[in-house]
Amino acid sequence: MSVAVARTAEGWWVVSGDRLLPIATKARTTARVLADRAAVDAAASSGSGGQPLAGAKLLSPVTMPARVVAQMVNYRTHAVDSGFDPDAVTPTFFRKSEASVSGPSDDIVRPGHVKLLDYEIELGLVLKRPLALGACVAPEDLPALIGGLVVTNDVSARDVQLPQGQFYEGKSYPTFTPVGPFLVLPDAESLRGLERLRLVLEVNGEPRQDERVTDMIVSPAEALTRLARFQELDAGDLLLTGTPGGTALTAPPKLVVRLTALLPPALKWKLFFRKQASNPRYLRDGDVITARIADEATGLDLGTQRTTVRAEARA
Fold this sequence. Notes:
By secondary structure, the protein is of the alpha+beta class. It has helices at residues 30-35, 37-46, 76-81, 142-145, 158-164, 188-192, 220-227, 254-260, 265-276, and strands at residues 3-8, 11-16, 19-22, 51-52, 68-72, 92-96, 101-102, 108-110, 117-118, 121-127, 146-153, 156-157, 177-178, 183-185, 198-203, 206-212, 238-240, 288-295, 300-311.
């Protein structure tokens, strides 16, 4: 049976309906909690005590330090939005700073120099044992490797990311990876049915992203196999598996791309960002983002994130 776990400043809890049941563990890290499954199961079976879930200040259920790795363009709908042929996409990975990880209700802080702030709901996979270099992961191996499923938001400063031609800075500012609210410890059946999970993100109640994992280009098992070609992972590390279509950023028409390719880079980016500045889908200060991942058919629910965009406080 899948079990949802939450973390507060006081410790770790099993989520049981509208209550949090304490886990009797000395674990301080996600890796240790995943290793202490007996304590988790004991809390889940206790069925009483604890405290109300409502009003509890939940922290990221993925503790740092840990590696945070993400996949680029891994949903067919996002590939189309980005101007790629989904059938020709090459699996690509990038790192995010662990300092970007924040809680499921923490504010997303927009740095003062960032104007084009974007959202990307993503299914996060948390390892419960190491992924060795050269490992070949089959779908049937996932229950032994994946310890947790989480909601994540790969917040992106597009006006930093795009001109730099790399993702690390533009996706790594503090609070740019909200995680949680829950760490769902999946059973084998849940991992076999990952494609049924539905990712939904709204901004101020307006639907922006709504797609199922079945839209993925590269499955989790294949992604882990490809990642293991050059990157080992440890228990507690986090893999973001890509976002579906519906982000604020979309590719310009092909004719515009061909014409602007003839311009000097500085002028090309100036024109591009002038056009993007009029796009109302980019995040503004005060916007409220809700992100949820669930399987309505089975009741598997990773919970709902609720974060608010705030401008960076000036010194």
